[in-house]
């Protein structure tokens, strides 16, 4: 059995392309090392994991958009891309996310990163959870 989770509070954070999303607090963990300094979860047991990423984004009018992905080290996990965009309407705050299953090795490091952004989108209330399912 292995699982772990990281969370961000309600403070707005700027989205920086290529950087891990920042986390403020740790949830429970077994078989996983939670790191709010590196903003990642290191898996201590190999297996198939269900990885869940959720991010609440605030997008302002003017064609703002953001694309996120779940990463294993520096490698994008296939199928983990999720995104939001807004046209020329009012400011929008919405929660977006993705659940994927992936084979991982002992010592693999899981994180959420912004792949691309347009405008000045921000995020809050994000979460990253991992759960060994096999």
Structure commentary:
The protein contains no helices and twelve strands. It starts with a strand and ends with a strand. By secondary structure, it is mostly beta strands. It has a single domain, classed as Jelly Rolls (Sandwich), CATH 2.60.120.40. The mean pLDDT is 96. The radius of gyration is 15 Å and the shape is elongated.
Give helix % range.
under 10%
For the termini, the CA-CA separation is: 9 Å
Q: How many separate domains? A: 1
Q: How many individual β-strands? A: 12
Describe how the helices and strands are arranged.
Layout: E1 3-7, E2 13-14, E3 25-30, E4 32-35, E5 40-43, E6 47-59, E7 65-72, E8 75-76, E9 82-85, E10 92-104, E11 109-118, E12 122-132
Antiparallel strand pairs: 1-3, 1-12, 2-12, 4-5, 5-11, 6-10, 6-12, 7-8, 7-9, 7-11
Summary keywords:
134 residues, mainly beta, Jelly Rolls, six-stranded antiparallel β-sheet, elongated, BclA C-terminal domain-containing protein, Tumour_necrosis_fac-like_dom
């Amino acid at each position: 059995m292995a699982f772990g989770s990281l969370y961000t509070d309600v403070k707005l954070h700027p989205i920086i392309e290529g950087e891990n999303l920042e986390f403020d607090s740790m949830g429970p963990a077994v078989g996983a090392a939670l790191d709010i300094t590196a903003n990642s979860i290191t898996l201590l047991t190999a297996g198939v994991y269900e990885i869940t990423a959720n991010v609440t984004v605030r997008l302002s009018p003017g064609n703002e958009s953001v694309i996120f992905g779940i990463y294993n080290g520096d490698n994008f996990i296939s199928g983990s891309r999720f995104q939001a965009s807004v046209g020329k309407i009012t400011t929008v705050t919405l929660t977006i996310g993705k659940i994927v299953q992936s084979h991982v090795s002992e010592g693999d490091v899981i994180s959420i990163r912004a792949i691309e952004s347009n405008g000045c989108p921000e995020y809050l209330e994000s979460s990253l959870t991992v759960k060994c399912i096999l």
